[in-house]
Amino acid sequence: MDLAALIHEENPTVQVVFVTAHRDYAIQAFELETTDYLLKPVLKERLNKTINRIHERLEEEHLSESMDHSTLPSLEIRCFKQLSLSFNGEPVLWKSAKIKELFAFFLMHLDTPIHRDLLIDKLWENHDYKKAKIHLHTCISYIRKMLESFHPNHTLSFAGQHYTLHLEQAWCDAVVFEHMPTVVSSKNIDTIERNILLYNGEYLEEEGYEWARVKANELSGKFISTLYSLADYYEQEHLDTKYITVLQKILQFNPYSESAVVRLMKVYIRLGMRADALHLYESFKQSLCEDLGIFPEKETSQIYTLLKQGDL
């Protein structure tokens, strides 16, 4: 473990694979971002999957190195947890909170016409219509100038009482995440593993925009369902370390998911991590009782009882 950490400090691109009879260090190994963790005796089929994973990562690195970085979008937009913009690596400062909110609203409806009155109703509710209209035009003017300074093809057009935001060259974490495949396979597993990391909090969570709640719920649902799909894939491919990690991630965002608890307990038991399984159940039961006033399902409790008695 220490050697793997030192190797990655020296050169993060080096791929490390553990081949060992020790099950207990699988989680720590994955936290070090090692390529794989093989348990002895190693089956040929399982070894081939590791080799294929190494080749795929090498191809990704080669592709990344060969890319012309001058063609990459210079405007980067992040929407998970909070809204932030950066241009050529420098953060973009907002002149006012209302300008930021208006841009966020346009971004949520990217390339979709939005009626002027809808903008006023959502962002200037309970304001005098004429004054709200003036505020809207002032914010629109600022956003247009800001976008034009980034790229000439970034536009905020107006036609038939509707505004439309168009971004010619920009990268947005929410857009990438939204277009991520939902069915996990060996062909897209690397893409999904990479894009799932973009979700580090709810959509515009810290901004407090009520109008963004529906979108936030949609993306949150996709995040959880994708994690379950990853769990199914890892279980099927016998990738125990990744299977454990994704189940733990599900519980991090949804601590009351009993199905994730049951699956995690079972894999802990299978790997001989009995103490971890017992602790997981006890913590889960305590959270359910204290927070929701309910108890775990009968199946979950039976697993715990059998484990406690030494029958599992």
Automatic annotation (TrEMBL):
Coiled-coil ranges (or none): none
Subcellular location: Cytoplasm
PROSITE patterns: RESPONSE_REGULATORY
A Pfam family the protein falls into: BTAD
UniProt keyword terms in alphabetical order: DNA-binding, Transcription, Transcription regulation, Two-component regulatory system
Molecular function in Gene Ontology: DNA binding
Sequence ranges assigned to domain Response regulatory in this UniProt record: 1-55
GO terms classed as biological process: phosphorelay signal transduction system; regulation of DNA-templated transcription
Record InterPro entries: AfsR-DnrI-RedD_regulator (IPR051677), BTAD (IPR005158), CheY-like_superfamily (IPR011006), Sig_transdc_resp-reg_C-effctor (IPR016032), Sig_transdc_resp-reg_receiver (IPR001789), TPR-like_helical_dom_sf (IPR011990), WH-like_DNA-bd_sf (IPR036388)
TM region(s), chain numbering: none
Gene Ontology, cellular component aspect: cytoplasm
Main subcellular location: cytoplasm
This protein's name: Response regulator
Organism: Lysinibacillus halotolerans
